[in-house]
């Protein structure tokens, strides 16, 4: 996902246009209402952040970071077997152990963390390099709260932008105007609403398509945009955004990419989902799963591949030794 100003700028323009279509309120008034709401939220958020900072004693940041007793993963029964020691599996194990539930965690690789992997001091670089799971979004409230509970420092990457005038973009030598592009989005927003409405009430899959769904699926993104009464500038901007995200030319993409990503959730322009990639853990995001693993360390067995599930029992094979099979019995299994 690209973390750039153009993405957020287009998302904002579509959001205003979509809300204008749905509420019959002029775009300029919608924009004013949104800006007022954001300003109030920033004040409230700032107050909460200050209060939280004053309330926290740095010397006691790890007071909630504790291990929980449990039996070993090897050869013993547990209430829950968790397959996968990535962030999802370890978070589940952490909260279950907090609730007093016995868990076993098995992981096929010889490390925990899944796709979250940080390398410190690589090639003399002072900051950690992320090989996966590089950013935390604003919407990742539970994950950020968990990181703070584990005593980790969260860096707000937008803090460096405080006091700067944001959202001034140029395209093909011309300054982009939010109001103009928002107005240009209006007919496209109406068309998207109509097309999505035609797909409602159906359990659409590739096995049970409707004629309308098939028609839209076979309409390329390029043809859909060209048929829409929008300016050449907006047409080009959308083509650039979708090409960058999906790695395919608009001529090779279905217009459903636009419909389902841009119009399925009211008020949000979701070409890249709702990811804003705003936060980062000082020292590397991999510290989150690593510290989670410390709290349930005696219940994690790495280098163990799941072979099969049989009723409430699981059969696991230790990686590199096919004959070394271990049966783990659990009343519930969670595959992460």
Alpha-carbon distance between the termini?
22 Å
CATH topology of the largest domain: FAD/NAD(P)-binding domain
Principal-axis shape equals globular
Q: How much beta, percentage-wise?
A: 15-25%
Number of strands: 13
The succession of helices and strands, N to C, reads HHEHEEEHEEEHHHHHEEHEEEE
Number of domains: 2
Mean pLDDT over all positions: 77
Oligomer: single chain
Computed Rg: 25 Å
Structural class: alpha/beta
Describe it for me?
It contains ten helices and 13 strands. The chain is α/β, with parallel strands linked by helices and 336 residues long. The protein has two domains: 5-23 and 173-274, Orthogonal Bundle (Guanine Nucleotide Dissociation Inhibitor, domain 1); 56-157 and 280-335, FAD/NAD(P)-binding domain (3-Layer(bba) Sandwich). Strands 10-2-1-13-12-11 form a six-stranded mixed beta sheet, covered by helices on one side. It has a two-stranded antiparallel ribbon with strand order 3-4. Residues 38-75, 265-273 and 317-323 have low confidence and may be disordered.
Which features characterize this protein?
2 domains; 10 helices; single chain; FAD/NAD(P)-binding domain; two-stranded antiparallel sheet; Guanine Nucleotide Dissociation Inhibitor, domain 1; 13 strands; 336 residues; 40% helix; alpha/beta; 6-stranded mixed beta sheet
Describe the protein's topology.
Blueprint: H1 5-23, H2 27-55, E1 78-83, H3 87-98, E2 103-106, E3 117-119, E4 129-132, H4 141-149, E5 154-156, E6 170-171, E7 174-175, H5 178-197, H6 211-217, H7 221-227, H8 232-246, H9 256-262, E8 271-274, E9 279-281, H10 287-295, E10 300-301, E11 304-310, E12 313-318, E13 325-335
Parallel strand pairs: 1-2, 1-13, 2-10
Antiparallel strand pairs: 3-4, 5-9, 6-7, 11-12, 12-13
Helix pairs in contact: 1-2, 1-5, 3-10
